[in-house]
Amino acid sequence: MTPIKNCIVNKNTTNNPIWLMRQAGRYLPEFREIRKQNQDFIKLCLNEDLSSEITLQPIKRFSFDAAIIFSDILMLPYAINQEVKFEKGFGPKLGNLNIDLIKETKETDFTNKLKPVYNSISLTSRSSLLKNKDLIGFVGAPWTILVYMINKISPKKNLTDQFFNDKILLSELIKIIERFLKLHIKNQINAGANLIQIFDSWAGLLQSEIEEFIYMPTKNLVEYTKSLNTPVICFPREIKNYKNYCDIVKPDVVNIDYNVDPIYIEKEISIPIQGGMDPKVMLTDKENLKKEAKRYLDIFKDHPYIFNLGHGVLPETDPNMVDYLVKMVKDY
Ligand code: 1CP
After folding, report:
1. I want to staple 140 with a disulfide (CB 3.0 to 4.6 A). Which of 68, 145, 170, 266 is the partner?
2. What domains can be seen in the chain, in order of their start residue?
3. Stated pTM of the model
């Protein structure tokens, strides 16, 4: 059994597996080299050889316990016929939302459009570098996908104040998103992903109607993934109440963000925990990194715990700091 499965399934606490969100890409010079030659980000995600190579880059360097497939959560709107572009220095830009066009999307067309992602997963899963390691497939949570599809740019830049105007459209759209996310999860598992992570990066934006837009649709995805005998990790970033979330959504593992108190989480939540440390700690020095990482490891020493961060690795992170962190966690 892999170290991560041992932690999730057997609730093992003796060793702490480690991988990092956004470990593939951005901060690695070997990724930037490939990216320079491939300006179209969607095309790069659909290049199965390069996507597989990028997925394995951090495994070669740091020997993490899991690889996460190089793709993006916005491949979903792309595959259900909303235009998606990534602009240099700006981020994602989505095209107009045409609900009639989206409704017409056929499941076979969806799967065909994303075939290179699934081929990349198959190819990667056969790599000898992944011996005794997991290959993580992922999706954005329905709410986070809805946010990008309606807002069309990152909410970090600006969030349209007309977001909740058309409740009928939102309710209809989130059901379509959920249906295709299930298909995307199934296809990734069939291709060889043996863990699924659901990124709800914008869970913290929602104040009311959490039931309809976060709990219910995510719970449906979690149940569906479990029915395919695959463990599922949820990351409801900045959600106000992690305990309620876990009680209702019932993931196998929950990734916490860096704003929550790990001592409180350790006491209140019994399922395996992942992550928590502020990615900005990676920008300081080794002594401070060791101190902060040790704080999380100490708090979770009797709790099944997968080391990770409270959000993705920042692009300006020095790979030497990542190397130091992995060794430190393994030697703990
Ligand atoms: O070079 C570049 O300009 C591309 C940068 C990049 C990369 C490397 C983007 C654009 N996406 C990715 C890959 C990616 N995205 C992975 C690959 C595997 C890994 O290393 O983890 C994963 C898991 C994601 C997930 C993702 N994409 C999330 C959820 C996690 C998170 O960080 O909150 C989100 C919100 C996105 C959307 C996205 N993709 C890229 C950008 C710039 C954004 C927008 C982020 C924002 O709104 O600020």
Report:
1. 145
2. 3-331 (3.20.20.210)
3. 0.97
